[in-house]
């Protein structure tokens, strides 16, 4: 069984997936969702049709001090939609603070062209979200 990691955003949403053993995470893609959860849910349907997924984990964008941001409130609503639509799957979330910063550092280190960064930053963030979730659960 695999885990799907999601970096949810109003404009773009990044997706990452674990291997079947839950050891590694790899980026799938970034979807330009244009504020449409319907497009995101359709993409999740496609992913579920192609992979044996039992868990979806979404990054929760808290403020640095731990307070719930406006974006976190939107993310909570999205998670509710996931729980309603995919009630046969485990739906979880994890603190995503600094994942975008890490994604930008990774792209800088790899020398990614600045014009391509916008299209992959959310995918890389989704990988960090998924890795954080998998590492947290290894210690349980």
List strands and helices in order, with pairings:
Blueprint: E1 2-7, E2 12-18, E3 25-32, H1 37-50, E4 53-60, H2 70-85, E5 90-95, H3 99-110, H4 114-138
Parallel strand pairs: 1-4, 4-5
Antiparallel strand pairs: 1-2, 2-3
Helix pairs in contact: 3-4
Can I get a quick summary?
With 140 residues, the chain is an alpha/beta fold. The protein has helices spanning 37-50, 70-85, 99-110, 114-138; strands at 2-7, 12-18, 25-32, 53-60, 90-95.
> Would you report the number of β strands?
5
Number of helices: 4
Q: What is the helix content?
A: 40-55%
Strand content: 25-35%
Terminal CA distance reads 18 Å
Low-confidence stretches: none
CATH topology: Nucleotidyltransferase, domain 5
What is the general shape?
Answer: globular
CATH homology group: YqgF/RNase H-like domain
What is the correct CATH architecture? 2-Layer Sandwich
* Major beta-sheet overview: 5 strands, mixed
Structural class: alpha/beta
CATH uppermost class? Alpha Beta
- Which value, in Å, is the CA radius of gyration? 14 Å
SSE succession: EEEHEHEHH
The whole-number mean of residue pLDDT values reads: 85
Order of strands across the biggest sheet? 3-2-1-4-5
The domain tally reads: 1
């Amino acid at each position: 069984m695999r885990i799907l990691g999601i970096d949810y955003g109003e404009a773009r949403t990044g997706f990452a997936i674990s291997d079947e053993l839950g050891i590694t995470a790899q980026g799938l893609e970034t979807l330009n969702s244009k504020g449409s959860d319907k497009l995101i849910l359709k993409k999740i349907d496609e992913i579920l049709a192609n992979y044996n997924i039992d868990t979806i984990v979404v990054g929760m964008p808290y403020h640095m001090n731990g307070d719930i941001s406006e974006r976190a409130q939107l993310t909570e609503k999205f998670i509710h939609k996931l729980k309603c639509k995919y009630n046969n799957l485990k739906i979880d979330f994890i603190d995503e603070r600094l994942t975008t910063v890490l994604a930008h550092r990774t792209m800088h280190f790899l020398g990614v062209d600045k014009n391509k960064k916008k299209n992959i930053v959310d995918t890389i963030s989704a990988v960090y979200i998924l890795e954080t979730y998998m590492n947290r659960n290894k210690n349980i």
